[in-house]
Each structure stands twice: as C-alpha cells, then as structure tokens.
Design a protein that fits this description.
The radius of gyration is 24 Å and the shape is globular. It has 15 helices and 11 strands. The mean pLDDT is 95. It has 3 domains: 67 residues; 259 residues, Aspartate Aminotransferase, domain 2; 114 residues, Aspartate Aminotransferase, domain 1, CATH 3.90.1150. It starts with 10 loop residues before the first helix and ends with a helix. Strand 10 and strand 11 form a beta hairpin. The chain has 475 residues and is of the alpha/beta class.
Length: 475
C-alpha cells in the first residue's frame, strides 16, 4: 500500500536518478565548446510568465523535469561555464566541485561547529590554511567561507568596526576608490556605516586609487572630528582590472592606524603563482582580504572567502555560546566562531576535493596561462584599426574603446563601443561586456575561465576585428 508520508527512495531508484542527472550534466558540459556563448533571450518575459505555477500537489517524473531544465531553461542564460565566456568576471564551475557538492548534500553532515563533524571541519580548515599560505598571510590569520565577495566585505567591515570604533559607529569613516566594487557600499550600510560616511577617492590615469587623494580625505575627516577607520583597495577592479598601489596604501594605513582591506575577489588568486606575485605587491600586508574561489579557483558560484590577519579580531566579532551547544573549544578551527552562520553547508569540500584531485601546480599553470592569453590578446586587439586601449591587462582583464574620424563625438564613440560588444557577442563564439567608466563606455575582455584557451581568444580577436571594421566604416 502506498504510504504518502514516506519520502524515501529505494537504492535502485536513487541510482537511476543519479545516472539520469549525471548523464545530462556531462552531455551539457561536453557541448559547451559548440554552444552559443550567450543564450537566446528572445521572448524571455513571456517564458517567465508562463513558468509561474501553483504548488505541485502531485509529483512528476524526473525526466519530465530534466527535459525542460536542460533543453529549454538552462540554455536561455549567460553561458558562464563556456570557454567563450569573457564577460564580467568568469568563473567556470569545475566538475570535481559538483561531485563535492553531491557528496556534501548526500552525506548531509552538520559543519557549523567542530564537535559535530571534526574530520570534515578539519578538511575545511586545511583549505583555508592553503589560501592563507598562497596569500602569504601570517599563521595568526583565520578565515571563513562565505557565499561570495559581498558577504566577505560585510564580515570584514563588521570586524574592523568592532576593533576600531567600538560603540562610536556614527563617527567612523570608510574609504573606497571610484573603481571599487559597488558591494562595498552596500556591505558598509549593512554593517552600520551609513552612505555619508563612505568616501570615494579619485583614481589615476591607470584607474588606480590615488594615495595622495586618500591622504587628503583622511586629513579632512580628522580635522572635522570624524574617525577614519578603514580603507578598501582592490586587487583587480571589475571595470578595468586595475590593481591599486597596495604597498603604498598599506604604508598609509599603518601610519594612520587604519584597517586595510584588499578586495581580491577577482585578482588575488594570481598570487598563487610565485612569478606573478610582483603584480600584487603589498597584498600580504592587508589586515583582511576578500577571496572568490568561484572566480580564480574556477569553482561554482556561491564560493567566497574572507581572510583576516588577526584571527582573534574575527573571532571576537562572531564567537558565541548557547546552552544547547557543546562548550566552545579553542584547539581546532570552528566555523561558527569565525562567521555569522551556525547552520551552514560544507563549502570547503569543493576546494579540498578539487585541489586534491588536480594538485595545485596544475592550478598555477592554468592561472599563468590566463594571464599570458590576456597579454597576447590585448596586444592583438590593440592593433585593430579604431581600437584604443584604455587599460592594458595588469592581470587578465583589459579595456578599450572605438575611436575613428567617422565617430567624431564621445557619444558616437560610446555608442559604437557598446555596439561592438553587443555584435561580437551576437556572433555566438564569445561573450563580452562593457562598463561605463566616467563619461566613457569601455569594452572589456576578461580571461579567467579554465576552459578558455587559445582557440577562444583567436575567435575573440577575429570577431572584434570584423565587427570593428564594420562599425567604423558603416556605423
């Protein structure tokens, strides 16, 4: 007799379901090289309207759900895992991480506190230690996995606020550059730092924070009785890939007694490669550091991390006890003592399993290749008639615009550059996006997906040349 309260599946049913999902997922990945870099969004509003539905009182077969998911809905989106995805900041979603998530979800062990799953939490602690070593942070540093850079920023601001301001939050001032990620201001607001206490510092011709302007802003705020407490610099901005003068900012923060946070969501993992560390000089001096493994480690979206030089500052913010919890211990890493979440998944397994399977030397080789591809592609694209390079790759991102006698005004150049991005993407081989920086619209190329190789960059250069030629000739 059917028991409606029984939600269990038989071992054979589970195997069949698992094979069905894996088969479709592997077929999807195998087809990425030939799939359009950007999905078809024609009629997407009508599709989303049609997808609205009441609760499903009766169950469906798995195939009936997987068919539209893989055949209709997933393809109608940005091709983020594809080799031609050069837009925004690529991730990749490397396959072993999916296996790790499957293991984590089926084992379903609680990792909020060490006592609940000591060996598993230790694996996560190992991955954070690896990151600490790659970034050359001291042994006193501690960290925590987050869902992304935004939550890492929030935790860092809250820790700095507690350490530098105490209860006098309203007088505290935080500093960012005009090219800093917008999530910082949002995170500051969530941490109690209002928008009128966030100062925006001008950048130089290379889009890097001006340390002299930062010093002037700090002096001005101090003169009016406010309390400067934190500076955000960036190891690879989203708009142009600029790396702020991290060493100079660190010097200023040390001199002024300010907390220095480096947003390394995009660029920090290039520090894994010893030969590339000079590009990020000063990064190991940060008081805290945002990392996004779902970018530079090619992991699935939803994998961020925070490192804090003084681990006790992070622990002081988050440590708590309750009568129903085991007594806190200080010998082993305890995630709940360093982050806001008590109930949580097992994000560290994604990093641990992938690193153990591949080895970190292969990762270093892949990161070095992405930078080499970006340098080569930027040089080739700069040779295309009409292309003006605004930001050469400091890491693996570069920015440019179209300029030609047939485009006599800034408005015309902006429109042509925007059209260049759109038409190259429409050709289907690569997806590229732009950014408004000041009054100028810039085209961008970011090489960071592990699947992006020389063939995709060849395609990008070919399509850029063809479309740019059409735009400066015919508009």
């Amino acid at each position: 007799m059917n028991d409606p309260a029984n939600l269990e599946f038989s071992p054979e049913a589970m195997r069949t379901m698992g094979h069905a999902v894996v088969d479709r997922a592997v077929a999807h990945l195998a087809g990425l090289a030939d799939a359009p870099s950007n999905g078809n969004f024609d009629g997407i509003e009508a599709l989303c309207e049609a997808l609205r539905e009441p609760e499903p009182l009766d169950g469906s077969t798995l195939d009936a759900l997987l068919d539209p998911l893989f055949n209709e809905w997933i393809p109608r989106s940005f091709g983020t895992p594809g080799p031609g995805y050069l837009a925004y900041i690529p991730g990749g979603g490397i396959y072993p991480a999916a296996l790790a998530d499957f293991i984590a979800d089926t084992a379903n062990r609680y990792t909020g506190i060490w006592q609940a799953a000591p060996a598993l939490v230790q694996l996560e602690a190992n991955t954070l230690d690896w990151m600490r070593e790659w970034m050359q942070f001291p042994a006193t540093a501690r960290g925590v996995f987050t869902t992304g850079g935004s939550m890492a920023m929030f935790n860092a601001i809250a820790a700095a606020r507690e350490q530098r301001l105490g209860t006098d939050i309203r007088s505290g001032v935080l500093y960012v550059s005009s090219q800093s990620h917008h999530s910082i201001t949002k995170a500051a607001r969530l941490a109690g730092i209002a928008h009128d206490r966030v100062r925006t510092i001008a950048v130089d011709a290379d889009f890097r924070m001006r340390v002299d302007a930062l010093q002037d802003a700090i002096d001005t705020d101090r003169a009016t009785g406010l309390k400067p407490f934190m500076v955000f610099s960036t190891a690879g901005t989203t708009n142009t890939g600029a790396v702020d003068p991290l060493d100079a900012v660190a010097d200023l923060c040390a001199r002024e007694g300010l907390w220095h946070h480096v947003d390394g969501a995009y660029g920090a993992f290039f520090h894994m490669v010893p030969a590339l560390r000079p590009l990020l000089a000063g990064l190991p001096r940060a008081d805290s550091l945002t990392l996004d493994p779902h970018k530079g480690l090619f992991l699935p979206y939803g994998t961020g991390a925070l490192l804090v030089r003084d681990g006790e500052a992070l622990r002081a913010l988050h440590a708590s006890d309750a009568g129903y919890l085991p007594t806190s211990q200080n010998t082993f890493y305890d995630p709940a003592q360093y982050g806001p979440e008590l109930s949580r998944g097992f994000p560290g397994l994604r990093v641990w399993l992938t690193m153990k399977l591949l080895g970190t030397d292969r990762y270093r080789a892949a990161l070095a290749e992405k930078r080499a591809l970006a340098l080569w592609a930027a040089d080739e694209i700069s040779k295309i008639p009409g292309i003006v390079m605004d930001a050469a790759p400091q890491l693996s991102l570069f920015a440019f615009h179209l300029e030609h006698p047939s485009l006599p005004t800034l408005e015309a150049q902006n429109a042509a550059t925007r059209a260049l991005m759109e038409r190259v993407t429409a050709r289907g081989r690569v997806m590229v996006t732009g950014a408004q920086v000041g009054e100028r619209y810039l085209g961008r190329v970011c090489v960071l997906s592990f699947r992006t190789r020389r063939a995709q960059m060849d395609a990008c250069i070919e399509d850029m040349a063809r479309v740019a030629g059409t735009l400066i000739t015919h508009g």
